[in-house]
Structure formats: structure tokens, C-alpha cells
Amino acid sequence: MRLAEVIVNRPAKQLNKPFTYEVPDALGVVPVGTRVAIPLGRGKEEGIIVGYVPETVSLNFTVKPILSVLDKTPWFTSEMLATAKRLSHYYLCSYPDALRLFTIDKKELKSYERPKVAWLYPEPFLTVESIPARKKRQREAVAYLLSVGGASYDMLKEQGFSLPIIKQVSELSGVRREEKYRHTYTNYDAREIPDIPLTTAQAKAYAPIHDAIIHRRFSSFLLHGVTGSGKTQVYIKAAAACVAENRIAVILVPEIMLTDQMVTRFVEAFGDEVVVFHSKLTISERYNNWERLRRKDSHIIIGARSAVFAPTDDIGLIVVDEEHDGSYKQEDMVRYHARQIALWRAESNSCPVILGSATPSIDSYYKAKKGIYTLLELPERIHHQPLPTVLLVDMKEELLHGNYSVFSDAMTDLIQRTLEKKEQMIMLLNRRGYSTFVMCRECGEPVNCPHCDVSLVYHRANEALRCHYCEYHAPVPEVCPKCGSRKIKFFGSGTQRVEEELAKRFPRARIARLDQDVAAKKGRGEDVLHGFAAGEYDILLGTQMVAKGHDFEGVTAVGILTADSVLNIPLYTAAERTFDLLTQAAGRAGRGKSEGHVVIQTYNPLHYAIIKSKAHDYKGFYKEEIEAREALGYPPCGEMIHFRMQHEKKDKAMQIATAIVEELSKVFDNDVEVLGPYEEGVNRVRNLYRISVMIRGDTLSDVKKYIYHSWIFTQDGLAIDVDPM
Ligand code: ADP
Ligand code: ZN
Ligand code: ZN
User: Fold this and answer.
1) Looking at ligand 1, which residue's alpha carbon is closest to its atom 18?
2) Is the ipTM of this complex over 0.90?
3) Is the CB of residue 673 less than 8 Å from the CB of residue 697?
4) For 683-705, how does the pLDDT look when each residue is reduced to its tens digit (9 = 90+)?
5) How far apart are CA 515 and CA 294, in angstroms?
6) N or C: which end of the chain has fewer CB within 10 A?
7) What pLDDT, on a 0 to 100 scale, did the predictor assign at position 552?
């Protein structure tokens, strides 16, 4: 009897071990890594075969048989299984949860192989006349097929034929049906793209990358270059070398909407070699794309964070563009960092990783300095545009001058000048909505979410107060819910409020807004960006979304309304995030022909993150920041794990958090520092209280080993965040 070890594909910490099942002879050879249907309890589940029990082992319990096999070829390669295992130990998540990251989201106990597209082709003997005249629509469909020589279901639907009609046509003897994998870019004309010669600086950076690609050697490169220094061109060159090796290139980008330009450049260079992966794809589109990679119909995948789990065993290059970006860290379920997974996978696949950024993460730069990564630099912009000039405005002084507006005088000037010159401006504000909060002037109480410990935000569009932590929303109260006073007032300002202010002051300016509220509507965010790129707007106002990655030729001015909002968040990464945000935002100015101007408004004009970003001085910033981290033992000069216990009852959350503190303090006495239990700034979300514990040490690998096998690992309601950001 063949006995397989099967992991149940279900999110549960308690199922963190394989179950033994019999593989009936009728199923033939079923390799490790194959997904199968198994009986579990009274139901059926999807399982993944992760190993076989040696024949010599005899069991003292009865086993059930596997019901069916779901993959023709195993979904998991041995490398994927090994990476999942490594991930589960490093990030302290269960093995099933780690494996699930590699699968297509939903499972229906079906093979993923449904979604090929059906194409219909006319046989030579097919004629319109062979269809009875009364079947008018069928005749029209056949006439269309004959005229185009073959069409997919989608094309027929686009022509206005209903599904029943298409089905009837597909069943005609004169029609041949073929299943195909969809191309992502059906409209793409394969063009010969002129091979742009690299500049000297690019060639120097590219040489060691090329060497690693063709010799199939693991190496990690940190490519540090300001925006416009030609990093993307280096990625394209590297991807071409990888494709020539007949291996897969994985290109990770922060968020797909914002990186349309990256996709466009790759598609221009490689056409159908490219597949794109993002969260808005349907399951069949995902499957289709993965299948194209597996069959090597396409060799390049571009995607956000989760694309690092590409199910392929032959990766020849991984690029992590904007490697410092926060969106690479998943902040729920399994709290992994895509950069870390990229490094592991590259190591197992024997290929290079390129981490690219204008403002590398402190972590990566530290490793480059230590020689763990190879540092490659592109110090100059390709077209030698100068970096923009930056003006810092101290908002405390504005107040002293009696200017209480959200716009300082310098900001107003910049807007005015930009509009006069008919150039474009990007304006950054970190808060969406209309006002930050609504407060009663009589009793001083803000209007809070009933389920979370945060104040509600006023949204003008639907005249409602909304919670940004849960889905709660309510109409604006006419009287204070606490004291009944009518003196309810809006404080602070969000994107909607500023939009209104701008419109009032500059009535002729064409203003577009981009924040999560706009982006939530499908296609709307893209429309705004395209419209702005096409010059339909003068000012693009938005949250961080407008700061990243765009390359708008017409933008000469950037305004940052509050540099302090990120600086004030109580996290050890606050200065790093501020420096990134300001530098990236400023980098949007003056990418075309004209010089760029930036105005930064702040209440902390002396903070090093702000001063160094004004000077475009990454290295200077790094030096100050790493000193601060070293002094405090913060990453990368030490490791941290954050525990967040959530419970409806505050006492209960506190009790469990306290038990964690006591146990870890006892076991690891002098080796680690245990902080807490403590309440977070926002200590209740969706009616669950949050109590935190933080541990810190030079290295925490022993602590992780201990936790993996202790009650802490399986504690319900406990989120463990390794390397928190
Ligand atoms: P980054 O990714 O660092 O922002 P890009 O690769 O987008 O930089 O390059 C900036 C601009 O310079 C782009 O318009 C790009 O087409 C152009 N460019 C890049 N490399 C070269 C080159 N070797 N020769 C000419 N133009 C280049
Ligand atoms: Zn009141
Ligand atoms: Zn809420």
C-alpha cells in the first residue's frame, strides 16, 4: 500500500501537520507536489501531497484513500515546497498557510484547468446555406465565422451573439472547436524594438547581473539610482538575457495600477512574452497566466507582491522594483515580505535578484554595505535633467504671519506660477476624505466609530461619516451625540476638503483627485492617471498613490502639504518612510524638459529626514538613520517580533499577552528584551481590543524555534508579525 503525507489546504494553525492517506493503485503515479481531493471528517477537502511514507513503516491506525487527483502535473515543485517550509519557520505561520500562498486563491476541489478559451473554426465544407433559413442568428454567426476564419467565444459575444447561439454553432458538424490559452495582449503587434545601447553607467551596473544570469548563479544586487537614472532599462536588458536562457523572469512592482508604465515598457519590448498578474484578475485569468508560464509560452511575469509565488521551477531572474516600498509587506494573515521570499527563491533557483530603488530600504542598504548584497549605482539621470529645487516652509511661521490656510504663501505662489505657465502640478496630502475628524466645540468630544477606537472621517460625496478601519458609516449627526450641542465642527483637512479649497482659490484650474476612495472604483484610478498624463488636468491631488513611480512629462511642480503626517506615526520606520515619501514625491517634478520645483510644508523643518530629502541626500540620511537604529537595537541592527492579541474582552487579551511576556522573559532571560504588554494607539478595531507585545534581540532564531512548538503558535486571536515595519 502506498501511503502519502497530505497537507490540508485550509487556513488553520491547528492543521500544521500532514495527514496520512492511501494512494489507490488506480490513480497511478502521483508525484509529490500534486493537489488531490481527500476525505476529511464528513466532507471533502483539497490536499497537497508533500511526501510519501517509507514502505517499511507500518501504521497502527487505518487510513482513508485519496479520492482523486486534481493536477495533471504537480502544482508544487520541490523548490516551492521547500520555500513554503522555510517561510513557515521564519514568519511563524503554519505550513498549510505558507503553501496556500502558492496556490490560486479559491479552491473548488476542481482542477484549475477549466479556463482555456474555446475557439471555433469553420471546416472547409461549412456554408451559410447549410443552416436552415429560419435559424437567422445561427446563420449570421456562421457568416461571421466564415468572414474572420475563426473566433473565440469572447469575440462572438462581442459581436452580439448570445451564449446559446454560440453553443449551437459550436455543435455544428461544420465547426471545429479548439481550446487555447489566452494571450494577455491579443492586440499587440510584435514589433522589432530597437536595442537601446546602455549608457556607460548602466553597462557597468549591468555587467555583473548579466554574468550571474548566464552562469545561473545566485547573487543579490542592490541597484541604487535616482528616478530617471535608467534602472528600468537595466531590468529590460536583464529580462532579455533571462528569456534567451529560456528561463522565467519575475518582475515585482509595488502596486499594479501605479505601474502601468512598467507594464507598457515591458510589453513594448517583449509583447506576448509578458503576462501580468494582479488582484483584479479572475481565477481563470490567473490560471491562464500561470499556465502560459509553465508551458513557457511566456517567460516574463510582472506582478505585485504575490507574484513572487509564481509556480515555476525555472526562475532565471527576479527584479524587485522600488524595493523599499511598504506594499511588499503583507499585513494580514501571513505577514511575509516579498523581498525575503524573492531572495530565497532566487537562491534555490540559482539566479540573480535585482533590488532596485532611488531610496533603498535601510535594511537593504545596510546589507549592501556589509557586502551581503552587491551595490550597483546609477548616480545620474539619463537625460541629465537636474534634480528639482526644494523649498521647505515652516508652518509654525505661517501661523505667526496670520496665515491659517492649508496653503502657505510659497505654496500659493507655486500653484499660481505653474498654472500661468500652463504646466502641471502634483499635490500630496496623506489623508483622504474631507476633514480628519468631526468634533463638538461645546464638550470637545470627537465623533468616534462605535466599533473602533478612532474618530470618523467626513466624506463630502455622500455626506457621511466613515470609519477608515472598518466598514462603519453614518450620516453626519446634527447634534453632538454626547452633549446634544449643535456646535459640531469639522477639523483638519483631507483630500476632498483641499480639492474644494483649490477649486475656490483657483477657479480655472482643472483638478483631479486620486485617493483610496477614487481608486476603489474599478478603472477610475487608471482613468485619472491617464487623463492627467494626457494633459486633461492641471493639478493632480492625492494621497501617497500620486507620489510613486509615475513619469509625467508635463509635471514641473510638486507640493507636499504636510510632511509630518508620516513622521508622527509611532514606528521605528517613521523617518525612513518620510524620507522615501518626500524624495519619491519630489522626484515627480521636472522629468520632462523644464526644471522642477517642490514646496514642502512642515512643522518639523529641522528633522534630518526632511532636511536630507530637501538635499536629495540619500547617503546622508542613511548615515543618521543607521546611527539611530544602532543605538536602539532596531532592525537591521537587531531583530524584532511583534505580537498582537485581539479579543472582545480587554481583560482576556491582556491576560494572554501577559502570559506571552512571562513565558518569553523566563525562557530567554538575558538574550532578548520583552516589551509590553501595551495598548496600541488604536486599541480597538471591529470591536476587538488589541494588546501588543514586542520582542527584540540581536538574533531571534532560537526564540522562533521555541515559539513554533509552543502554545503561542496556535493561540487563537494572536497575530505574529516577524520583522514588523
Ligand atoms: P528609472 O527606472 O531609473 O526611473 P528609466 O529606465 O525609466 O529610469 O529611464 C529614464 C528615461 O531614460 C526613460 O525615458 C528611458 O526610456 C530613458 N533611457 C533609459 N536608458 C536609456 C539609454 N541607455 N539610452 C537612452 N535613453 C534611455
Ligand atoms: Zn458635545
Ligand atoms: Zn470602525
Assistant:
1) 230
2) yes
3) yes
4) 788 888 899 898 999 899 999 99
5) 37
6) N
7) 81
